[in-house]
# Entry
Amino acid sequence: MNEADLKAATYEDVTKIVKEVGILPLSSFIPDHPSLESMTTQEQWHTGLETDPWLWRDRLPGDGLAAYGRFFAKKPLLISADLFPLIKNLLEDPYSVEERYEDGLLPKSAVELFQAVEANEGIDVKALRAVTGMKAKESKNEFDRALIELQSKTDLVIAGISERLNANGTKNGWNSTCYMTALHWMELHGLAVNASPTPEAKNQFRAYIQERYSSKAVQYLGKIFKL
# Structure
């Protein structure tokens, strides 16, 4: 896979590329590996047009083509629908959110966030902060940390965006990010859970990246996933 040859001018381009590369970060943080940033031009971004990669990142999970979230390195990335069940197998915790909280591995805020999303699949971030009582400015860091922690174990995914409308139903202000439990997102788009034992799942993933990625990217991901 030659990173320099990958260019995305349209949404159709990026749908093919994300299926081909499997893991597509928004920014270029995986060494010698393509990103949404590297395959587009600066002029494409934040235009609000159909060619805007900022809109693609939300459209892909909405169309069931890629899972989106901060799954590792605390960085936003897209994982193709084909690969996500295997990635989830490797990143998820065998214990529930509630059990992890009881063991002192998660803060109470993370449990409350997860339960709120589970009860309101597709909830937008503004409503989520309200439901969990974390609307205050001083709660933002705790809220953000809990969200990243839940994404890093693939408990939650970013499911797209909701348009912010005023009382007349007219778009008003920035769109809001929406969250879903990963299992609900998978079920919604007909993706089966990968139930391979961990050593077998690691072997599957190791073979996948060695076949497709550069040696630097393989080395980096090998450390992340403890292959």
